Amino acid sequence: MPRPRFRRRIGCLPERRYFRPDGHDPANPAEVVLELDEVEALRLADLRGLHQEEAAESMGISRPTFGRIIESAHAKVADALVNGKAIRFMNPAEGFELNAVPSGPGGFCVCPVCGVRKPHEAGKPCRKEVCPNCGSAMVRESFDSERKGGE
Q: CB-based burial of residue 45 (10 Å sphere; 0-12 exposed, 13-18 middle, 19+ buried)?
């Protein structure tokens, strides 16, 4: 029997759920699906420039596991770019600790299901907030430098 899977930490949710190439034909549903851990691996390694060991530690996984995740993500993105496929991001699911990266003061609480955002209230954890649209628990949106335009 395999050992239980570690919960993977995700620093932030993607702002968009779907990307499609220019001229994408909606009748042709060719797409690749990126899991949240693959998006996080791309963000940490390629956007923030962390080494695999640092990125793996940030996600709470081993370096070899991180290597497999980033390899899978690179292959999917390459397939989408070369073959003109759309990219869809999976919705958050069990097995992830969303927004485990400290966000600092301010920011927003965001619904991982429908994407509703509302200003964060200091001293009140976002996970105790309820989404006004769908009733799901909210999570804290991370404000990394790459989302602020590379400060």
A: buried
Name the DSSP letter for residue 47.
I
Residue 126 Cα distances to 90, 137, 139, 142, angstroms = 21, 8, 5, 12
Could you tell me if 140 and 37 are in contact, meaning their C-beta atoms sit under 8 angstroms apart? Answer: no
Secondary structure of residue 136 in the 3-state scheme: coil
CA distance 65 to 69: 6
What's the pLDDT tens digit per position in 19-50?
888 876 777 778 999 988 899 999 899 988 98
Strand partners, 31: 86
Find residue 62's DSSP bridge partners: none
The pLDDT confidence band at residue 150, using thresholds 50, 70 and 90, is very low
Tokens at 40, concatenated: 């996080």
Query: How many CB atoms are located within 10 Å of the residue 65 CB?
Result: 18
CA gap 139, 148 in Å, rounded: 19
72 — phi, psi (to 5°)? -65, -45
Residues 6 or more apart from 148 whose CB is under 8 A from it? none
**What single DSSP character describes residue 137?**
B
